[in-house]
Amino acid sequence: MARVVALIPDLLFGSRVQEMLTSAGHQVTLCADARGARSQAAGSDVFVIDLAGGSLDGVGLVRSMLEAGELPSTRTLAFYAHVDVDTRRRAESAGFDLVVPRSRMAREGSELVTRLASG
């Protein structure tokens, strides 16, 4: 199916997402830091980014990658804490293809990735 790079610093949730996507047939590379993700994301079909917490500026990372033309054919999927409306708005204005609450990612992550990868 799709080649997915997932930037998810929360190792427990990252493992859960990786298992969900792998079970759906996707090839997943899980990254815990921005530098590793940046080097891997350009060759992927879908780049998944955790915006739900921590010191990682996922919105800034993807914005800079899009502006530099580093993600020409890579679709972007971000998830955020459902109470953090500001982060959702920033991600949407930065150009993410899809921005969903963390709970939706936990429930529908494989379907969301499949949908983004196919079109």
Task: Output the keywords.
single chain; 119 residues; five-stranded parallel beta sheet; 5 helices
At the fold tier of CATH, the topology name is Rossmann fold
CATH structural architecture: 3-Layer(aba) Sandwich
Write the CATH homologous superfamily.
Response regulator
Low-confidence stretches: none
Q: What is the global morphology? A: globular
Just give the CATH class.
Alpha Beta
Which percent range fits the helix content? 40-55%
Name the average pLDDT: 94
Largest sheet: 5 strands, parallel
Give the C-alpha Rg: 13 Å
Strand order of the largest sheet: 2-1-3-4-5
Concise synopsis of the structure shown:
With 119 residues, the chain is α/β, with parallel strands linked by helices. The protein has 5 helices and 5 strands.
